[in-house]
Specification:
CATH superfamily of the largest domain: Hexapeptide repeat proteins
CATH architecture of the largest domain: 3 Solenoid
Number of strands: 41
Shape: flat
CATH topology of the largest domain: UDP N-Acetylglucosamine Acyltransferase, domain 1
Strand content: 25-35%
Number of helices: 5
């Protein structure tokens, strides 16, 4: 695919500086850039590196330049770069139809142009919308619903009753609808609490590889519209994730927790059970949120246990000085003891 700098600039609503008629054949990293490549440069340092490369065009922030290369100037270079990537690498559509090795149950409703890969198993009374793609080895339980334009990559498992919305992407190995972790100790035994709810994934969600989302004990575990979940995330029973929230790798969320809209949970965050996060809350990497804790809209928290970030920073700074502080305390104790001895005389 070949587009001119002017055509790309119109796509991303950017301003061209330099020759807008230059042809662009590929999007490249700065290190691998060739002639007729477009590269991204978000910062002045990367802009200097891009200028020294063989790239023909630099996608960069408004106000950059001038430059001997063609520039596309935009307010948000990274967002514009994402759109350009889709231009040169459009989504591939699997060929419609079911592979001969697929096993399809009774009373299954298949929409138009559905693609079902090898060794897929689909249970009874499943409804699958138009243009859904189901990759090799997927297992779809009874009475699941998968709405149009959704993609399940290889070896995804949907337990019975799971509902998946429109334009959802579920990456390889994800398991949706497994039993919540519910047991009651009695007489030295662990009595299993039946998990009879479902999981609902709303529209435009992306679920990373090897994510596990547990079904509700009763009712629903809900992943809201536009939520983005990284790889290796665990979401327990009856959790609600508000729309457009982002969960980074290795996040774990305990049962009945509520995450508001537009929240960000950084890598390896642990959320205990019955926690409530308001909208737009940011939880810093490797933080731990204690059971039942509540944070208000817009709070930024960090640490374990998580606290408002400025308080956590002060505490970490104090911990860094702990050896010196212990020496000072020891010295003060010796001085006090010496003064008490002199007074006693």
């Amino acid at each position: 695919m070949v587009y001119t700098v002017d055509e790309i600039a119109r796509l991303v609503q950017g301003e061209v500086s330099g020759d807008g008629a230059v042809s662009i054949r590929r999007v490249s990293s700065i290190e691998e850039a060739q002639e007729e490549s477009l590269v991204l440069a978000e910062t002045p340092a990367y802009f200097r590196r891009a200028e020294a490369s063989s790239a023909s065009c630099i996608l960069t922030r408004e106000g950059a330049g001038p430059s001997p290369k063609s520039l596309i100037l935009v307010r948000n270079p990274k967002a514009a770069f994402a759109r350009v990537l889709w231009l040169y690498h459009p989504a591939k559509k699997d060929r419609a139809g079911a592979h001969p090795s697929a096993v399809i149950g009774e009373e299954v409703g298949l929409g138009a142009q559905v693609a079902i890969g090898p060794f897929v198993t689909i249970g009874n009374r499943v409804r699958i919308g138009d243009r859904v793609s189901i990759g090799p080895g997927c297992a779809i339980g009874d009475e699941c619903v998968i709405e149009e334009d959704t993609v399940l990559h290889s070896r995804v498992t949907l337990y019975e009753g799971t509902r998946v919305g429109k334009r959802v992407i579920v990456h390889a190995g994800a398991v949706v609808g497994s039993d919540g972790f519910g047991f009651v100790p009695e007489g030295g035994e662990q009595i299993k609490i039946l998990q009879v709810g479902i999981v609902v994934i709303e529209d435009d969600v992306e679920v990373g590889a090897n994510v596990c989302i547990d079904r509700a004990t009763l009712g629903r575990t809900v992943i809201g519209r536009g939520v983005k979940i990284d790889n290796l995330v665990q979401i327990a029973h009856n959790v609600t994730i508000g729309e457009s929230s982002t969960l980074s790798a290795q996040v774990g969320i305990g049962g009945s927790a509520t995450v508001g809209k537009g929240c960000t949970l950084a890598g390896q965050v642990g959320i205990a059970d019955h926690v409530t996060l308001g909208d737009r809350v940011i939880v810093g990497a490797q933080s731990g949120v204690a059971p039942g804790k509540q944070f208000r809209d817009g709070e930024i928290v960090w640490g374990s246990p998580a606290r408002p970030i400025q308080k956590s920073k002060h505490q970490f700074a104090a911990m860094a000085r702990l050896p010196e502080l212990l020496e000072e305390v020891a010295a003060l104790r010796r001085r006090v003891a010496d003064l008490e001895t002199r007074t006693a005389r």
